[in-house]
From TrEMBL:
Example of a GO biological process term: alkanesulfonate catabolic process
Name of the protein this chain belongs to: LLM class F420-dependent oxidoreductase
Superkingdom, natural source: Bacteria
GO molecular function annotations of the record: alkanesulfonate monooxygenase activity
Record domain Luciferase-like: where: 10-231
InterPro entries given in the database record: Lucif-like_OxRdtase_Rv2161c, Luciferase-like_dom, Luciferase-like_sf, SsuD_RutA_monooxygenase
Length: 286
């Protein structure tokens, strides 16, 4: 079992210290969240809370996850990083390929690319991208980014993106893994078809078991049942040694946790207390 530290809503000046501590404790990776901005009025429900409200405010700290990965990679040597998840829909795939390739190079290929579409129409429209056809456009974006990161001179002529031969160097020394987020059947199909893994938002154990079963069906349908596939999970009702063993038995390969939350320490709590929580978690469960 892998254990990953989630750092959503953490003050930015703590990130490099927490990365070093996580590495010292033996965590496998750090999950990097993504939020572009806080709109005063949201036109769509946030899909991962019961009432559709956001769990953060206009003053909650966020950092661009690719910049965070580069910064934390500079002060560590082993621990890995992955976006969980970066919202592709409002971005440009050619520019993203440059950024992802740069982070892979600067971290010594310790970077995984967790991707999703994005839930807020404002993030699309205010970044100059239409909300309509977002799923089809993201599918093509994934193809474009993988093509460019594969190295060499490449070209692409698709429905949404079109370019003649280009090359970005250096290409990653090994393929950047793609982890696909989303709980809908369309998202699960995307994960099974093009992903090296699936990554969850907050989910109950019973729902998770159903998702894993569906992913297995879909991967068999796409002829990928025997290929390695990560299941990265934020499970909200299974904890401790027995709970983590149950998750592993269900097929989870990577538990995403925020250790200090179990000790009643808020996101803006003392840095030293968060470090101690990571040490306790590692000693008790890893």
């Amino acid at each position: 079992m892998k254990y990953t530290v989630g750092i959503a809503m953490t003050p930015l000046n703590e990130l490099t210290t927490l990365a070093r501590t996580a590495e010292e404790c033996g965590f496998t990776s750090i999950a990097l969240p993504d939020s572009l901005f806080y709109m005063e009025t949201q036109s769509a429900d946030y899909p991962y809370t019961p009432d559709g409200s956001r769990m953060w405010t206009a003053d909650t700290p966020w950092v661009d996850p690719l910049i965070a990965a580069a910064a934390m990679g500079a002060v560590t040597t082993r621990i890995e990083f992955y976006t969980q998840v970066l919202k592709l829909g409002s971005r440009n795939p050619v520019l993203l390929a440059r950024q992802v390739g740069s982070v892979a190079a600067m971290t010594g290929d310790r970077f995984g690319f967790g991707v999703g579409i994005g839930w807020a129409p404002e993030e699309f429209e205010w970044c100059g991208v239409p909300y309509a056809k977002r799923g089809k456009r993201v599918d093509e974006m994934i193809d474009v980014i993988k093509l460019i990161l594969g190295g060499g001179m490449v070209e692409h002529h698709g429905e949404f993106y079109d370019f003649d031969k280009l090359q970005m160097s250096p290409a990653p020394a090994k393929p950047v893994p793609f982890y696909v987020g989303g709980h809908t059947d369309v998202a699960l199909r995307r994960a099974a078809r093009v992903g090296d893994g699936w990554t969850s938002a907050m989910i109950t154990f019973d729902d998770l078991v159903g998702v894993i079963a569906r992913l297995r069906e879909l991967r068999a349908e796409y002829g990928k049942a025997d290929e390695p596939f990560e299941i990265q999970t934020v499970c909200i009702d299974r904890f401790g040694k027995d709970g983590y063993a149950e998750l592993e038995e269900a097929g989870v390969t990577d538990i995403i946790t925020v250790p200090w939350v179990f000790d009643g320490i808020g996101f803006d709590g003392p840095l030293e207390a968060k470090q101690e929580s990571m040490r306790k978690f590692a000693e008790n469960f890893m």
